[in-house]
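Now for our target.
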Amino acid sequence: MEEVAELGVWEAAGRMADALERGALEGLQALCDPGFWERAGATELGGVAAGAVTVTLLGTLPRRSLLDAQRRGGARTVIEQQWTAAPGGPLVEDERLFTLADRAEIEASGDPERIERMATKLAAQDAARRYAAALAARDVDAARAMWAPAFADAHGDELRPLVAAVADAELIAAVGPRTLVRVWYTGSDETVELLWRPEGGGWAIAGARTFRRPGAG
């Protein structure tokens, strides 16, 4: 986590969360690289800020942060931001927005193009819900069955004891084949970004990265 400390990403992401919650567009712009703000930041962050009720900083990685924006009406947008060093402090240079799609609503639309376009996200969401249920049940075998072989070989020894220690887990958002699962342990939590790939007629975890508070884990 040293890179996070050096760049001050945790502190900057905290200011981003506060600006989103207050709807402070000038504050948001001040935390963004000008090119990114013009390209996407003003539209994306302005849209989230317009409806945000609470914004929680879930965790960081080197140069990345994860914000959970609860919006009016119960909707949720989780924002993964990539930061770059700047003389006045780190600035957001790119981001990805995660949400949950409603399978029943999409299928009921009868729009074949929309259904096809959303198929990967829906499949990844379904798989991630099953994985979150396995984690919450501390079912190591069920969780392991959803790891792609290469992922299991690389990370299985590390993950098996963690699965056995889970207190609860929940799918919170997705984009394409990537999902975010928030995991609680006794006295701590983390949010895992899972990359899903088709495997043996189903979907399996091919990659993962974990967002935590600095110094945790």
